[in-house]
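Need tokens for this chain, all 198 residues.
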Amino acid sequence: MADEFLVPQEEYLKSGIHIGTKFRTKYMEQFIYKTRPDGLSVLNLQKIDERIKLVAGFLAQYAPEEIMVVSRRENGWKPAGKFAEATGVRSKTGRYLPGTLTNPALEHYTEVKVLIITDSWPDRNAIKDAMRIGVPIIGLCDTNNQSNNIDLVLPCNNKGKKSLALVYWILAREYLKGRKTISKNEDFKPVLDDFMDL
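Here are the structure tokens for all 198 residues:
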């Protein structure tokens, strides 16, 4: 079973991709495997892996310039930026200006067909914009996230540097494979450390 994973199971565990928060929303219950004695909720690795495959497959239907990745959370700046660099998608890290996707009069106006957000609370302005124009929203969601405005939830620890680096690294590789830009894992040149703030 473990070798069906996109990366070895140890790699997932080492990154803490499955470690959630002490708070859990009803939206995220379906992805939670258990709650530890210290109160932290633990996400189901199998479901994380399945969702990464699902998200990559969905994204592969779109050209890079039709996708935007957003991260207001500082731990996501480098991973989201590297994801954009590796795949050619657009990125907006740091402060997201409302109207970026909806107001053609703005200098930074951008047209996209899909939005990826790193965390639904800090990235709420981007979500509002995407909802206004009916663009599908893919959200990296932790156990404490509301996901009612997210079209496709990717459950993961969206706070940790290692976890975000791993999610965006795998997504970049799988997206390029889905687009037939590369044919196998070995063709993907960036290494995981490239996506990480060390």
